[in-house]
Amino acid sequence: MSPDPETTRIVRSWLDEGVTQLPDRVLDTVLDQVPATPQRRATWPAWRSPFMNNFARVGLAAAAVVVVLFLGSRLFGSPSPSVGGPGVEPTATAEPSVQPSVEPSPTPVGLPEGSHALWDEGVAMTVDIPGPGWYGVPAGGILVKNDTADAPDGAGMIVFTEDLYVYADPCRWSTTTPDAPATTVDEVVSALSAQASRDASAPVDVTLDGYEGKSITLHVPDDAVFSECDQDTFGSWGVESESTPGRYSQDPGQIDELWILDVDGELVVIDTAYYEGTPAEVVDEMRAIVESTTFE
Asked: Which of 237, 110, 263 lies closest to 185 in space, CA to CA?
């Protein structure tokens, strides 16, 4: 089968000129060549994971490079001796000067007791881990007790340092996303307090490392059916860079204690989650971690 001359021209131009963005027609071909695997929620951390998002982008870019190189070799690679005819020497295939490579994503590991860099983007945060069994990645913004944040007895915490688009209805988040984000402590508290089905507590004043804010507790109904929600997801809020919830719940019955702070004009939200079945000492440890927070 003869190659499409226009596709040949586009691919050749891309390879020759070294541009960094694929044309749409070539990108469509690349996506057709990349195997599709049904996605499911990861068991860890199954929350927002910045390092996994970055890894996915790099992986797709590398896959695109591999497929384009393959297409290029098929479309205008060197002819074989049998095709070239008598007296035509086969042309050596040039090795690419840079081999595509993908660094493995950071793997959550058991963390030792003591000081731990919790987050380093925008507002750097350090916490003290008071006991064993906590897992995370340095500065990854997530800590999980005993490697699970799932019901019936899991526990974990996650950090956000962006303005939040708080959904009016966590189950119908795709149609109740506000036009503008909440950018202050009071705006976030007000939006969460009004959120459907969350049974929010009255906010209380808190201080962490000298910075003032408010704490509020939210609940996911015990009888919530996530499969009846948008994309099977019970979402608390979104962030500007994502089209799906930046924070969603693990299971029905989840309890979220949030510390919402203004750190030198920057909005910081620390979300700790657990269940009725989570041991009290684990909840106490998690609260102690939050209260140990220092900002840099």
From this structure: 263
